[in-house]
Recover the amino acids of this structure.
C-alpha cells in the first residue's frame, strides 16, 4: 500500500485520473462522492491535525494512533483514496499469479468474487468490504463499519468496495448488490496487485 504523506502538516486531496466510469459509476456520483464527501473528510482531518502531535505522520500511522473524529476522518481519507485509485476506464486484467493466490485462499476467482459481494451486500449499515493480506501472505476478506479499515487489524489492504449509500444511491438506488457486481468491470488489477508488498 502506498501511504499518503502530509506536506507541511496537511494532507492533499487525492486526484482522480478519470471524470466518469461509464455505466458503472456516473459522473454525477463521482462529483458528489469524490468532490464533496472525500473533500469534507480531507478538510476535516486537516483542521484537526495542527498541534495534535500527528501532523507529520503518514496517514496509516495517524489512523493507528488517532481516536474519535480524527480517526473517523483519517480512516475515510485512506479508504476513499484507495477506493478511487483502484478504478479505471481501461482496467488491467488480473495476472495469473494473483489469480493463483485467490484460488489458493478461496477455491477460485469466482468463489472469491461471490464471497466478496456477499460480505458487501450483508454488511449492515454503512462501511466497507476489503480484500487484504495478513502477515503470512494469506488473503482474507473483512467487513469494516463506518471509517474502519484493515490497517487497524495489522493487515495490508489490497481492494475495497464502499457500501455507504452515497457511493451508489444516485445510480443504483437501493440495489447495493447490483452496484457491487458491476464494480468488477472497472477494477484495475495492476493497482490492486501493486499493493501486495
Amino acid at each position: 500500500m502506498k501511504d499518503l504523506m502530509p506536506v507541511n502538516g496537511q494532507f492533499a486531496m487525492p486526484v482522480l485520473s478519470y471524470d466518469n466510469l461509464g455505466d458503472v459509476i456516473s459522473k454525477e456520483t463521482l462529483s458528489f462522492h469524490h468532490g464533496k464527501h472525500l473533500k469534507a473528510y480531507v478538510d476535516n482531518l486537516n483542521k484537526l491535525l495542527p498541534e495534535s502531535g500527528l501532523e507529520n505522520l503518514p496517514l496509516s500511522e495517524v489512523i493507528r494512533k488517532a481516536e474519535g473524529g480524527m480517526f473517523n476522518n483519517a480512516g475515510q481519507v485512506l479508504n476513499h483514496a484507495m477506493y478511487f485509485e483502484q478504478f479505471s476506464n481501461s482496467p488491467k486484467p488480473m495476472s495469473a499469479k494473483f489469480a493463483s493466490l485467490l484460488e489458493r485462499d478461496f477455491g477460485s476467482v469466482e468463489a472469491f468474487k461471490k464471497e466478496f459481494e456477499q460480505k458487501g451486500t450483508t454488511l449492515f449499515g454503512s462501511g466497507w468490504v476489503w480484500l487484504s493480506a495478513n502477515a503470512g501472505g494469506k488473503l482474507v476478506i473483512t467487513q469494516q463499519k463506518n471509517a474502519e479499515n484493515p490497517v487497524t487489524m495489522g493487515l495490508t489492504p489490497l481492494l475495497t468496495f464502499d457500501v455507504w449509500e452515497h457511493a451508489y444511491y444516485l445510480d443504483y438506488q437501493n440495489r447495493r448488490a447490483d452496484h457491487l457486481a458491476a464494480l468488477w468491470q472497472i477494477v484495475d488489477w495492476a493497482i490492486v496487485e501493486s499493493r501486495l508488498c
Summary: The chain is about 45% helix and 10% strand. The mean pLDDT is 96.
